[in-house]
Amino acid sequence: MKRITVALDDEELYQALKMYAAQEGRTLREVINEALELWVEAKEDAEDAAFAEAAMQEQGESIPWEDAKPALSRVEGKEMWDYIH
User: Fold this and answer.
1) Predicted confidence band of residue 83 (pLDDT cuts 50, 70, 90)
2) Could you tell me which residues come within 8 angstroms of residue 65 by beta carbon, excluding any fewer than 6 positions away?
3) Residue 34: its pLDDT value, please?
4) What is the DSSP string of the chain?
5) How do residues 57-75 score in pLDDT, each as one tens digit?
6) CB atoms closer than 10 angstroms to residue 48
7) Distance between CA atoms of 48 and 54, rounded to whole angstroms?
8) For the chain, what are the domain ranges?
9) What does the alpha-carbon distance between residue 65 and residue 76 come to, in Å, rounded to a whole number?
């Protein structure tokens, strides 16, 4: 486990974090970890979308990332077996 110190300049944000954590029976550490994981996932999704869009434009085709994402997630998940057989 790595430790960091987070200094929040926004008192309202801090109070909101405390309130939501308490409502869910979670610690601030858990809430902040989840928020950071979601932020990183969103950044990765945006990068993947940009890469997919650029690749499709090279091929002369383009579909919205939101249409392609479910198919790609199936390839990464349990349904991968369906593609092998």
Assistant:
1) very low
2) 45, 48, 49, 52, 53
3) 93
4) --------S-HHHHHHHHHHHHHHT--HHHHHHHHHHHHHHHHHHHHHHHHHHHHHHHHT----HHHHHHHHHHHHSTTHHHHH-
5) 766 666 676 776 666 665 5
6) 14
7) 10
8) 11-84
9) 16
